[in-house]
Amino acid sequence: MKIIFTFLLFFIVNNSLYSQTAEDYFNKGKNFADSSDFLQAILYYSKAIQLNPYDWRVYQKRAWAHYKTKDLKLAIEDLDVCLDLKPKYENLDALNLRGKFLLENGNYNSSIDDWSYVISSFSNEFVVKHGIAHFFRGQAYLYSNQKVKACLDFNESYNRRMADAKNFIEKFCN
Predict the structure, then answer these.
(1) In-domain check, residue 4
(2) Is 3 part of any domain?
(3) In total, how many domains does the chain have?
(4) What are the pLDDT digits (tens) for 152-167?
(5) pTM > 0.90
């Protein structure tokens, strides 16, 4: 009996020393992402999600890692979950990423919806004040054959100090 008790005690103590929390896996995922090892980051973020599927931050970070590994579909799916857990009216960063990823993925109408929400709901934020949101929405309008709206956004973007908009204005709006 003493041997069994000693073995159980050793097993419990040993396991507790090596058990990791969702936060531990999240932090390790961030470390891998910071060193540009995005595949390892995805693995650690996924383990964090297994242990705590309600932490919106992990989905947002894993979305970025998926994006860096050229998997837009999974990146968008993670941002959808992230925005379910922390709604868009509270989560500008995830909304910006999703708008950008949707644009790159060819989901122009959904991208327009996200950028329009950003513009109307976050008017005092850098991304709106400096024309970045208008620039991306303008691209989504342009690629969805809504040239008039695109040119309005490119002009607004340029007026708000987004210099890249000038190229689009010269190429598509004159």
Answers:
(1) no
(2) no
(3) 2
(4) 999 999 999 999 999 9
(5) no
d(CA 77, CA 49): 14
Query: Is 109 strand, coil or helix?
Result: helix
d(CA 17, CA 48): 18
DSSP H helical ranges for the chain: 2-18, 22-34, 38-51, 56-68, 72-85, 92-104, 108-121, 126-129, 132-143, 147-159, 165-172
Q: Which two tokens stand for residue 46?
A: 């996924």
Largest CA distance in the chain: 88
- Tokens 């054959």 -> residue: 145
Q: What span, in angstroms and rounded, lies between the C-alpha atoms of 105 and 133?
A: 17
Range of the domain at 58: 22-86
Which CATH number goes with the domain that contains 45? 1.25.40.10
